[in-house]
Queue: 4 jobs
Job 1
Amino acid sequence: MSVNQNLKLPFVINYNLGITHAFSPNLSMEIEYVGNHGYRLLSFTDINQAPLGAAQCLNTLTAAQAADACGPNLGKGSPVQEARPFFNKFPYLGYIYQAGNSAYSNYNSLQVSVTKRMSHGLLFNLGYTYGHALDNGSLNRFGLNPENSNNLAQDYASSDFDVRHRLTATATYNIPGVKGFGQLLEGWQINTIVTFATAQPWQTFDSADNFSGTGENTDRWNISGNPADFSSGKNSFPDCTVSQPAAPAPSLPFAAGNVFCTVTTPYGGITTPATSAQVSACQTHSGQSGAVGTPLEIAGCYISPNGNSFITPPALGTYGNMGRNILRDQGFKNWDMSIFKNFTFKERFGIQARWEVFNILNHPIAANPSGASSSVNTGNSPGPGNAFGASFLTPDFAAGNPLIGSGSERVMQVGLKLSF
């Protein structure tokens, strides 16, 4: 069910201040501060969110609710449902989404550009941006529920599309020619585009385990160490979980001999037994023994590829300490190049033959697993078998523009342009 507040028009203030200096008639530099602030932006919250620990009957239900849904009657009623604020009025309603104006955003940046106009056969443009975008929801109605609808400020963090550093360089050079020989030694042109961008955040959430007990299925886990150690890519983070026997055998505790760590690649999974040190580290950083029924035993833990940081499930009835968008992808690096050959006929007609090479170094990039700039939405949920941290698509496929889009393997195309 959804309800609307008296929605107001969103308001965005843009501001900028810049200076331009010309070093010569063909060379100039521009330095500019650019920022904006958005408020009264569209937000969605669940005003019928159950309190922490409701699913586990942990001190959040009234005596009547506990008598109906917990203890000996566990299973008769739903503890999450009965703990919802509007259960007495609307016992059959779960989520009640409220559209409001509680989202807000901020962006600040320093932008520098150097431009050389065509002279001596060369032109180029160099652009650099240092900026930071923050908000408490980048996708409006297409995004997740907040982790906690009662505290939207908890989700205020770097935007999904935040790129701290971006550098773009383009250049064209007209090769000096020699007339004659059917124009074969003149009219040649080389073009290049280089793009570099630091890593973007990606949203991570537990969509299945409901360790918080609220039933929202947007829980974030605990992290110990440096978030930069968990950079998403073509392989998943090492996922250490209990190797459970087939039913009806009982569950096994989180202990050496029962725990195996799996790295999922585009070619399949690679599983190795966990060492005693890995098991001990997961238990220490989670604060849980890993006994049967605990979140650590149910969902396991993740160890960074360098072994220095850990992501572990929170205790029952709690939120994890991971902030929104603290994990990032591997950034974007790309170099394109093209060669043009121009023929002219009596000033009115021209033919341009093109050979264009995208990603000339042939270094494919793993797309961002999930967020405003990616529609992959895989590998963003921790839990056994979820390939957490992996993205099995390149950015061009993730954006629905395969091959010609950016980030794929090397791609070449040829073209012929007629002008008259």
Note: The radius of gyration is 28 Å.
Job 2
Amino acid sequence: MSEYLGHMFNVYADPFGWATLAKILVIILIVTAVRSMSIAGLGYLFWWKLFAKALQHRRIQQRIPSAARLWNELRWSLSTFVVYTLLGFGSYFLWKMGFTRIYPKIADHGWGYFALSVVLMVILHDAYFYWTHRFLHLKPVFRRIHRVHHESLNPSPWAAFAFHPIEAAISFGILPLIVVVMPCHMAAVNLFLLYMTALNVAGHLGYELFWRGFTTHWLFGWHNTSTHHNMHHSKVHCNYGLYFNVWDRLMRTNHRAYHDTYEAVLARPHGIAAPAGAAPGREEARGGAVRAESA
């Protein structure tokens, strides 16, 4: 086995050398951290700091998480970036070994397929996320892994990446899956990763971004909102979807009060905050975790 592994590394790593591979690993880590932290940081800076007072009527839950909770989200996020980096490097190594369907030139499949491939990645990831998310809510899995993420009953943008390392690996496992099963250009993959990061942060923003009537619109209603995922954190056993409201509708897992809650947030006059009781207190938060573990 050791001889085989040594041969494999010599064959596929020698063209670049170990020093170059180490540099690639560092570059992937930097790109991953910068992309994630910059999008989450901008969301936090804009909504939670600079314009928090002006936009308080858009805040889904009134109570602000403690500094300790925010720091905890940041610490878990750092470990997530390491896991994402390793999976990204693994995808790179699969490409080096010829196991992926990454193609070098957009002209190989044309601009039409380039655009279509991004859409297909999003659709594939949406299904992948829903069903892996349902798996994470199984009682033993939740207790040991997914509870880390659900410690944020009222999430901030930093909670978008606050995962147990195993959950981080599951969530980012879509990347090697995509590059192995479908032809894709790296620019398309990067656009998909950018979209994935932005929508993940939006779901944990804690403020509603859209307008009244969005969730019941014949077209827009198929896209999820910040309220949708915020309710998943506060109610736990509902609203499992990521980008679209397709799987939750098919599996009847939308919270029955989703549309009403969304409209209640959007109906507040400017300058009027959410009711003080909108966020769960400490005992309610503990009870929420217990309910989740007992599912």
Note: Confidence is low (pLDDT under 50) at residues 4-9, 277-287.
Job 3
Amino acid sequence: MTSGRRLSQAIAEGDGISVIAIVPDAASARAAEAQGAEAVAILAGVPGLRDATSLPVLSLGDEPPEDADACLLRVEDAEDDLESHQGDLTAAGFECVVDVHTEDELQLALERIEPEIFLISPRAADDDEEEIDRVLELLPDVPAGKLAIADLQSADRDTVAALERAGFDAVLVRSGSVGELVGAEPPSV
């Protein structure tokens, strides 16, 4: 870890729900921080990222870059070797964010590695099921004291307010929508 700030700390402190912005470049990271994001997420290495922001960095890619603080551990990809993958990431200095999209994956993660942070994805949603409904359906299975991040491709202030009321600690969004989601004040709940 290079920033001295942990993702878990950034999304757990303060009032309200935190916004984690997916950024493609350093300028977007700088803008997301200025608009109130609590962390940024990247798909691959971003040149100049550490100079552009002091926020914690979550790597969403398969190979976490050196400047990431946290990275995803996808249960569906590492199911047979979950403990080993978590150990390798932790030994390398990364905070693990466990990506789940079904009740079975969530239970498996809890039984085998006891993660601190979950990314709840709507990937297993039925065709007629809204993304928000799927993530809200999985949230009650996350034990108290664990952090939950909603992974939604699109969100507006009403969606963020609903996630906050339900108990999510953070929402992962595209960088262009940070300002409108955070606004001058957090959404009223």
Note: The CA atoms of residues 36 and 182 lie 6 Å apart.
Job 4
Amino acid sequence: MVSISVVVPTYQRPDYLEKCVRSLFVQTHLPDEIILVSRDSDAPTNVRIRELQRELGGGIPIYNPQVSEPGFLPPLIKGMGIARMDVVVFFDDDAEAFPDWLERMVSHYADASVAGVGGRCVSYYEGRLLQFSAASRVSVITWYGDNIGNMYRELTFEHPVPATHLMGGNSSYRRHVLQSVGFDPYLNKDVAVGWELDIGLSIIGRGHKLIFDPLARVNHYTAPRETVGMRPGHGQESVYFMARNMVYIMGKHLPYARKVFFFIYTFLIGKRSNLGCLSFLVCLLLSRDRTLLDRFRATMQGKWAGWRDAAHYRRCHPSINSGPL
């Protein structure tokens, strides 16, 4: 049986973090260690972690490495470096796991070709369960390079399926594979949109499998923070980096022939959440959003930067396999 390290990056959410940690202690398959990576300046969280260590740490070791650098990737990198078990699980600090969560994920590692397993996040906002239309596809990339996640939706099936990537707050990887792939330094550390996609495509590009199990579920509560410190907000800088990172990742991983279709799709067509020329014109006709032009400008600037950086990456890494996409 594989051993499990659970890594939880946390910032300014001590009450949510406590619920998160307690859900790990009632698992039908207990983790072997819990690594809570906090900011060194976040005193309330660090005090709460010490309290949890005193109360719960006798059964499962609870470690508290700290980082000083802001952003979402530094605590993930820190946690990955400290983890000692076979499988590293990433878990959000504002989530609670279903009791059979780890048991379901661990069961898939009996297949030696599986390098990562993830599941569904059941979403709540301000205490209310969010309802989404059911989806029949999850974690796929279309032939023209659009990324379809749907890992937060109700699904029309309950069986495990192959995946191209996993949801960051409900994902696990074989430690040696994750360490060999690593986190791409070209991704912006403050607004690390798409890191899960990049990790997933890097792993399957090396010939490994990823599995999405819709019954490996966690409740995700989208908790607030006093300040922005780990995830992107809604300003133009965030719009820029969301567009930049997605184009960079697709340009880095897609086979050369499909890059042409992706270029046409992302720049000329796009969609409301990631504007292209056509989607911008449609939104302009249908919407009175005064920030639309600024968002379009930031999106296009980000996409051009992503395309340039992907081309530079491919020149520096000509032997990288784009994988079976």
Note: Residues 292-316 form the longest helix (25 residues).
